[in-house]
């Protein structure tokens, strides 16, 4: 009798394990699919007290997923003149860049002694 109970428990544990495994796999597949589907990306990585690139470029007319990653410190960014504002609450946005030009990218959250110099450029070609 006890053996039978042990066997049942073992089967239940196996099923649970398999269920969790398949869940994880399908989640990962969904994530990969959405990443593959996503169009051009524009990623800003912020640290104390700079953005990871002095210049970023995008193509005019494209809809781009713009994202901000605060690798170090707390920063918020704005693409001046385009009304694009990202921070820890809104980490990404879909933006269509229509007008070619060079735009200033600035940190708009007082983040420390280097805040005023925390600038970059976005070139829409
Ligand atoms: Cu700042």
TrEMBL record:
InterPro entries: Cupredoxin (IPR008972)
SUPFAM superfamilies, sorted: Cupredoxins
Domain of life: Bacteria
Protein name listed in UniProt: Uncharacterized protein
């Amino acid at each position: 009798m006890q053996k039978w109970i042990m066997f049942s428990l073992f089967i239940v544990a196996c099923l649970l394990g398999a269920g969790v495994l398949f869940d994880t796999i399908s989640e990962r597949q969904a994530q990969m699919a959405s990443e593959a589907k996503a169009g051009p990306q524009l990623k800003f990585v912020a640290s104390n007290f700079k953005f990871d690139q002095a210049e970023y470029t995008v193509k005019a007319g494209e809809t781009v997923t713009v994202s901000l990653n605060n690798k170090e410190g707390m920063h918020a960014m704005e693409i001046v003149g385009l009304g694009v504002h990202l921070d820890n609450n809104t980490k990404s946005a879909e933006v269509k860049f229509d007008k070619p030009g060079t735009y200033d990218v600035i940190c708009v959250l007082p983040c420390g002694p280097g805040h005023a110099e925390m600038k970059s450029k976005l070139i829409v070609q």
